[in-house]
Amino acid sequence: SKDKPSYGFSTATTEFDDALMSRGVVTFEQAMIAKGASPQEARRLSDMKFNNSVEGRQVDQQSTGNNHEVTSDDDDDEFIRTYRHELKKDKNAIKYGDVIHISRPDWNREVNEASRSGTWVIVNLTRHTSSLSARHDEICDIVEETIRELAVKFEQVKFVFISSTSAIENWPAENLPTLFCYRYGKMQHQLIGINALGGSGLNVDRLEWRLARLGIVETDLEEDPLPHNKSAEFRSHSKVFTDDFCDDDLTELTEAGIVNGWSGDKSSIPVRVVNHM
After folding, report:
1. Do residues 31 and 20 make contact, with C-beta atoms less than 8 angstroms apart?
2. Cα(37)–Cα(167) distance, rounded to whole angstroms?
3. Higher confidence at residue 20 or residue 203?
4. Among 90-104, 113-127, 147-161, 243-257, which stretch is predicted with the lowest mean pLDDT?
5. In three state form, how does the secondary structure of 197-246 look?
6. Backbone angles phi, psi at 192, to 5 degrees
């Protein structure tokens, strides 16, 4: 199987990780691997943590002498119950780890129903055979590769690929790339155009940052990462669908005859775009 890509992890651990390590249930390396680090990265972080903390531990030992914290049997029993509960939750969690290709008949099952329990389902509309330009094709390809990497990193998020023309008849190519974000059976967010996804300098971290701001994934990033390059951002020529597209916009477009067959329910996907302004 394909190895997971290596990401920049810190040596920070949660209180629960610390409790596991203090009782010898897991090692520091195992805690890092559980966060998604590769075995090589986990070993590197372990060495770094050891080297940085030797002096601190020596000072702590001198100040505390031979005093040791004693935990009661009741505390241990409570901890074991909590640990088993966490293990059960992790075991029951559905993990994906790769993108899933679907067609229109699969939509309700793979998107609406799959998201109904609270799982995030991210739908990427992929380009069809038609093309605006070589540059536009390149941007769509970069987005697809970026999403593949995020699917490996965030295994509990379901990433779905579907041809734009299969999902929505006459969906404007200018609106690609497009992401629909579903949860609880309904669309919660939509990212339309490369600017909404992070610009033409898109990389994994930039899209991760945007998904984290929407509450879809958890990230260790502290700020929006810089793009790969300083080139001007690709600007969509679409005047029909924009980043802040909402239900009021849909009503207006339907009344104007621009959108045909929209059910009025944001949880369903658009049926057909009649023309493009």
Report:
1. yes
2. 35
3. 203
4. 243-257
5. HCCCCCCHHHHHHHHHHCCCCCCCCCCCCCCCCCCCCCCCCCCCCCCCCC
6. -120, 120
Q: Residue length, the chain?
A: 277
Query: Which residues, other chains included, contact 37 with Cβ-Cβ below 8 Å and sequence gap of 6+?
Result: 6, 7, 9, 45
For residue 14, how many other CB atoms are within 10 A of its CB?
Answer: 10
* Per-residue model confidence (pLDDT) at position 71: 52
**Residue 143 tokens, joined:** 């987005």
Cβ(41)–Cβ(32) below 8 Å: yes
Rg over CA atoms, the chain: 23
Burial 120-144 (b: 16+ CB within 10 A, else e): bbbbbbbbeeeebeeebeebbebbe
Between 151 and 9, name the one with better pLDDT. 151
pTM of the model as a whole: 0.54
CA angle 95, 142, 269 (to 5 degrees): 60
What are 89-123's pLDDT values in tens digits? 554 567 889 999 999 999 999 999 999 999 999 99
Beta-carbon count within 10 A of 19 CB: 17
